[in-house]
TrEMBL record:
Organism: Undibacterium macrobrachii
Keyword Transmembrane: yes
Protein name: DUF3742 family protein
Entry keyword Membrane: yes
Top-level lineage group: Bacteria
Positions of transmembrane segments: 39-72
Keywords per UniProt: Membrane, Transmembrane, Transmembrane helix
């Protein structure tokens, strides 16, 4: 049983290696046909891409950590301020109540789509 699994893995790996070699040969043939300035441009573009992606990811992580730090600092300051001051309920006043309007609802009709 062990031998058949080894043979299967060997054949899979051998086939994968053959496919990889075939792709490499095709890429090599294509590179031999392309002019050198185009290859130079492709190499520069690939180098920029390889350089910029880690830079972008690291900046994203740094800014998210700064944001998280600021959120923690501001929330701790707010909780400290609330615990320091006594809780005083706000007094109700007639002046605020004068701005309210009385609305009377006599009948509510529903549309069929809302049911």
């Amino acid at each position: 049983m062990k031998n058949s699994n080894k043979q299967y893995m060997y054949s899979v790996l051998r086939q994968a290696w053959q496919e990889l070699r075939a792709v490499g040969n095709k890429a090599g043939q294509a590179l031999l046909r392309t002019p050198l300035p185009r290859i130079l441009v492709l190499c520069i573009g690939l180098a920029l891409l390889i350089t910029l992606i880690p830079l972008i990811l690291s900046l994203f992580v740094i800014f998210m950590l700064v944001k998280l730090f600021l959120i923690v600092v501001t929330s701790s300051n707010r909780s400290r301020q609330q615990s320091d001051s006594e809780f005083k309920p706000r007094q109700w006043s007639y002046k605020e109540a004068e701005d309210a309007q009385l609305v009377r609802v006599e009948q509510i009709t529903y549309r069929r789509e809302d049911r």
